[in-house]
Write a structure and sequence with these properties.
The protein has seven helices and no strands. The chain is an all-alpha fold. Helix 2 packs parallel to helix 4 and helix 4 crosses helix 5. It starts with a helix and ends with a helix.
């Protein structure tokens, strides 16, 4: 494990920080191949409030990753609108048979499968 990766994990565990989130979301494309307009923290909190659902996580950047990933990959298809996007994020984050850090671990596994684990850990600290 690279030294900077160890340092990142010692600081954040298997969770996104703001820099890692921005980098990950910056690579996301929609079905047309266009970059997505990212959902912000304030935007996600407002979506949850409007849906009457409580966002039950202390790891907001993990929830933002899931929201933006779902927007890029599923919005307008299997996720029809913001209410269903919020429900998806809530279900994913609160998955009863999930595990701590699941969004980040899946992101890292996907990165390894696609890009030979090219994460510039020193830039994420």
């Amino acid at each position: 494990m690279p030294r900077d990766m160890r340092q990142y994990l010692s600081n954040y565990g298997w969770h996104f920080n703001q820099r890692m989130l921005d980098w990950a979301v910056g690579m996301m494309r929609d079905k047309t191949g266009s970059k997505i307009k990212p959902i912000t923290k304030e935007g996600l909190e407002l979506m949850f409030k409007n849906a009457g659902i409580e966002l039950q996580t202390k790891h907001i950047y993990d929830a933002l990753y899931v929201a933006n990933m779902a927007k890029a990959d599923f919005y307008g298809s299997s996720i029809a609108d913001e209410l269903h996007l919020v429900r998806y994020v809530s279900d994913y984050i609160n998955d009863p048979d999930g595990y701590e850090g699941m969004p980040f671990v899946r992101f890292y596994a996907d990165t390894c499968m696609k890009d030979d684990c090219t994460v510039y850990w020193e830039d994420m600290l």
